[in-house]
Amino acid sequence: MVLLSLDIDGTLAVGDPPGWIPIDWVERAHALGYIVGSASDRTMTDQRGLWERHGVEMDFVGHKHKPDEIRARFPDTTRWIHIGDGEADHLYAVKHGFEFYWVHEVPKDGSPGWIW
């Protein structure tokens, strides 16, 4: 099972500043059976509010500096991915065993090993 963790600001189209990953990625990942959520430096209340305003149900919200807590909630997961735009995203994701992709370097659909 794949867990996809997304930073918000600078990564998602609904972030501040906006990134280039559209909301429909969440829907696409859910349709494939992935666990999808956000890991941001925003408060969890703010993250939940953002998703509610956009009518998106997430499997988790968490803090980018605590990906170990996200991993612990989903012990049956076999692949952990985090996409972000900052050094903190990169540092904490890699430190806790997540694959990390810079938002501006996400592989193209169909690339070997990519999630779609």
- Spatially, the strands of the biggest sheet line up as 3-2-1-4-5
The overall pLDDT average reads: 96
Radius of gyration from the CA trace? 13 Å
List the uncertain runs: none
Total helix count? 4
**What portion of residues belong to β-strands?**
15-25%
Task: Tell me the distance between the termini.
Answer: 13 Å
Structural class assignment: alpha/beta
Overall morphology: globular
Order of helices and strands: EHEHEHEHE
Largest sheet: 5 strands, parallel
Q: Estimate percent helicity.
A: 25-40%
Q: What's the total count of β strands? A: 5
Topology, please?
Elements lengths: L1 E5 L17 H8 L3 E6 L3 H10 L6 E4 L3 H7 L5 E6 L2 H9 L3 E4 L14
Parallel strand pairs: 1-2, 1-4, 2-3, 4-5
Structure description:
The chain is globular, with a radius of gyration of 13 Å. It has a five-stranded parallel sheet, with helices on both faces. The relative contact order is 0.22. The chain has helices spanning 24-31, 44-53, 67-73, 87-95, and strands at residues 2-6, 35-40, 60-63, 79-84, 99-102. The mean pLDDT is 96. Helices cover 29% and strands 22% of the residues. It has four helices and five strands; from the N terminus they run E-H-E-H-E-H-E-H-E. The protein is α/β, with parallel strands linked by helices and 116 residues long.
